[in-house]
Amino acid sequence: YARGQDLQLKQYTSYRQKQCWLDLDAFDGPLEKRLGNLCYWALKLERKKQEYGLRVPGVEILPAVGAAHQALVLKTIALFKAEVEQ
Questions:
Q1: Among candidate residues 60, 51, 47, the one with its CA nearest the CA of residue 20
Q2: Is residue 52 a contact partner of residue 19, using CB atoms and an 8 Å limit?
Q3: Which of 14, 25, 63, 67 is most buried, taking the most CB atoms under 10 A from its CB?
């Protein structure tokens, strides 16, 4: 500004990753509780419109957001539970 130029601004952006992985192995406790935690976080992250993915043994769903993604994640959790109980 002192040199006769216009004011210049510097803007900083966050490079923090905006996606989250829900991993069955990241939770402690009995299987039923761990699956419940996955459901809870899937619903919470979807409400916040934050990308999330799912990892359970044999399945990996890449991070995304939206009703179709949420349905796929919840269905995968439910089917995993059904397979384990048989």
A1: 51
A2: yes
A3: 63
